[in-house]
Design brief:
alpha/beta, N-(1-d-carboxylethyl)-l-norvaline Dehydrogenase, domain 2, 2 domains, five-stranded parallel sheet, four-stranded mixed sheet, binds D-mannonic acid
Length: 474
């Protein structure tokens, strides 16, 4: 057990505005930025915006915006104090203040972790989803905006009006081509809302793609108690995370940035190969584990990995996902899979299946469906993909309206109601955002998922996992 105090100076000014104050931001961009300032200086303190709830902002305010970050190594903890967050806002409490911050010349970079569903884009296409509640509200409302795109659009408009240079707007969520997707959706939004600023956004701001990686379970009372023990004072904003940390960013900045490269961040011309590998191998396997786990009554990723046959199935899936990746010098999917298995097995990380199972409709296309469609086109098997999808559907039906955590919960539950597995699969496959992946147009896919779903329903997820393993290794 070790604990290190933050070395940042008290009068550090802010240069980054961050949207989404969840655990992931506090375990990823925050330490990277703190270390970059340590290494090379610069006024790159973070001003963070909580999109909805005030709890964390209030908690941070009560502890001088400092918190403990605990790295959970299999053989013990290393903790450090993070103090790079210098101010925090609650968006619904002070929307105009947040918008105004984007018109400050000191702010040069905006970073974003609002989860897949926070953008208001359709999962299968990345196009603006005008039926998304915040998008619909912000397109028609005359008052302050509520959602990410509305706030960005208003903030950039204020920045343009102030005669300032553009911003680098950096999405750090697990969306395919996250920067490009955000740019397209924001331009579509702004065109509809206020055409005038659209050209300025397109010409002056940049939206680098980025791949972010660090397994960060939701903080619990245990996290806080441990932080208290390690730091010697109460900490209700503490976070625990795995030791592994990776950030790959496209070299496309509108202006200055922290010296992230000095801390191991990879700044590259093209993020796509890194992102595809991570989304399909790490996140795809994660979703499979999460739905298999919840259906089989297992609580955490490490519990699934502790059953040798399931661990083998995870490996088989990673291998199948790897076969859909372009060959890129320097990227070794085999070694990556080995490292992922070790990370998933970390006995010190209690990463709940239910946490990962959230928002399946927003995650499945980029994690599993596109890769499965590519495999079908090449006429190779998709057993593990069909199995993971069947477990997702069973998780949906078992959770029901009260427990299912997904913005498309009502649509999914309506589609899946009824005993006929094939009809359920076809109905889910025709939902907006999923239909566009075109995977569910394939009869082999429908049959594969329907038969796995029937088996999961009748014999349980574990028996079906064994059958998928036999099918996939044939
Ligand atoms: C997880 C990710 O919750 C989820 O859906 O798959 O948050 C995952 O832990 C991160 O992407 C790891 O970098």
């Amino acid at each position: 057990m070790s604990y290190r105090r933050s070395g940042l100076r008290g009068n550090l000014k802010t240069g980054i505005l961050h949207f989404g104050l969840g655990a992931f931001h506090r375990a990823h961009q925050a330490p990277f930025t703190e270390d970059a300032i340590d290494a090379s200086g610069g006024d790159w303190g973070i001003e963070a915006v909580a999109m909805r709830s005030p709890e964390l902002v209030d908690a941070l305010a009560g502890q001088d915006n400092r918190y403990t970050l605990i790295e959970q190594h299999p053989d013990g903890q290393q903790a450090r104090e993070i103090s790079v967050i210098r101010a925090a806002h609650v968006l619904p409490r002070s929307p105009w203040a947040v918008i105004g911050r984007m018109a400050d010349p000191a702010i040069q970079v905006v970073t974003i972790t609002v989860t897949e569903k926070g953008y208001g884009v359709r999962p299968g296409t990345g196009e603006l989803d005008e039926s998304h509640p915040a998008i619909a509200n912000d397109l028609s409302a005359t008052g302050h905006p509520e959602g990410l795109l509305g706030v960005l659009c208003a903030g950039l408009q204020a920045r343009q009006a102030a005669g300032l240079a553009g911003l680098s707007v950096l999405s750090c969520d697990n969306l395919p081509s996250n920067g490009q997707t955000l740019r397209n959706a924001l331009l579509q939004f702004s065109q509809r809302k206020n055409g005038d600023v659209t050209r300025w956004i397109a010409d002056s701001c940049t939206f680098p793609d980025s791949m972010v990686d660090r397994i960060t379970p939701a903080a619990t009372k245990k996290t806080m108690a441990l932080a208290g023990e390690l730091s010697g004072h109460a900490d209700i904003a503490a976070v625990e995370t795995e030791p592994f940390l990776q950030w790959v960013i496209e070299d496309r900045f509108a202006g200055p940035r922290p010296d992230w490269a000095a801390t191991g961040v990879q700044i590259v011309p093209d993020v796509a190969p890194y992102e595809l590998m991570k989304l399909r191998m790490l996140n795809g396997a994660h979703s499979m584990i999460a739905y298999l786990g919840t259906c089989a009554g297992l609580t955490s990723v490490r519990d699934v990995m502790a059953i040798p046959e399931l661990m083998r199935l995870v490996r088989v899936h990673m291998h199948a996902a790897a076969e859909t990746l372009p060959e890129v010098p320097g990227l070794e999917p085999g070694a990556y899979a080995d490292a992922l298995v070790t990370r998933f097995e970390n006995p010190a990380i209690d990463h709940r299946c239910l946490q990962i199972a959230m928002d399946g409709s927003q995650k499945m296309p980029q994690r599993l469906f596109f890769a499965a469609a590519e495999r079908l086109q090449r006429e190779v098997g998709v057993e593990t993909f069909a199995f993971a999808t069947a477990c997702w559907l069973h998780h949906v039906e078992r959770s029901g309206a009260d427990a299912l955590n997904d913005p498309m919960a009502a649509d999914l539950l309506r589609a899946i109601a009824g005993a006929d597995a094939r009809a359920s699969v076809v109905a889910v496959g025709s939902l907006p955002g999923i239909a566009e992946t075109r995977l569910f147009e394939h009869p082999d896919w429908i049959e594969g998922v329907a038969s796995a779903l029937t088996m999961v329903r009748d014999h349980g997820a574990l028996a079906t996992a064994r059958r998928s393993l036999t099918g996939a290794s044939r």
